[in-house]
Amino acid sequence: MSFDRTKLNILPLSQRKSKSDIEKIAINPDSIPTPINGRGEIIDRVAATIIQAKKNKASIILAFGAHLIKNGLGLVLRRMIQEGFVTHLATNGAGSIHDWEFAFHGKSEEDVRDNIQQGQFGIWEETGKYINLALLVGASQVKGYGESIAELIHNDQISIPDRNEIKNEILRLLTDEIPNAKQIGGLVDLLSAIDGADEKYKIQSGEIHLEHPFKKYSFQEAAYSSKIPITIHPGFGYDIIYASPNNSGAAIGRTAEVDWLKFAESVARLEGGVFISIGSAIMSPMIFEKALSMARNVAKQNRKKIENFMIVVNDIQDSGNWQWGTGIEPPNDSPAYYLRFCKTFDRMGAREMHYICTDNRTFFLNLYHCLKEKQK
Question: I need a surface site. Which of 32, 300, 304, 350 has the fewest CB within 10 A?
């Protein structure tokens, strides 16, 4: 037996009491940052390394958890993108969802404690319907998760092909000498969704126009406009969009796979570059270590190395007096031993690694201001 999501009472976002209003929480990139006591020298070093990586055309990858967006740093991130201080963005499903809700609704976050008691947590019509629909269409076109959502925000629409056109395209691909299996799979999945039995969520072909009045706050839209990769690395069942009848595991998997390989390609160009991880204890270190191993495997075959790069980790978990970046791991009786994300990054064999323990608003705004000064 499987749970039937069509039985859910799905409410519109307008009925949700949201905790965050983007126009109230958004941080002005030009506002004066709170100084980071004792870490100014490290911020200066990180900024200088980013400037040099930019000149070298090496990867400057920023991976982060959803709190960067929930803390109102979207405008700062947009500036970083537009001014060329980052070449690749990677986040989890929640980071993408909060950004989309801010762009569409102007608000995001809900009271989990209250809504879970009512059986209403995460069960909101527009978020589940339109994000999943954008992913279905993106999967049919072999696009990534990030690009699919960013394109929706940028264009204010989803273009769903006519079902007969989809059938004809499947037939055309099947008659090719070497069929594109991913393309066929995505089209079949989209066709199945369009032919869905549930009338309330039946998908029709054509243009679905969906205004995003607050898109100027969206980092996904900025990445799309600036033509830099934004990759989403979801865990199945982790996010509220999985409650929607429109949700498709095939679409999630296909778009996430596209993004995963884009991420690995950026990691492959990390020699001379910078990898920054902000507020991500699991997603960021886990995808990085696998991608780096893949990249080094291929580099080794070409007698090249990927070792001359900097890793910067920002979080608020105290590691005591342990100095990360020395290549020596803390003993198991030290609290630092259980900061798995720091241990993972410390093992990666980078030229240098720095852990900056402070609020992400303080770190990110200080870094941006330092970059602006050095760019002059």
Answer: 32
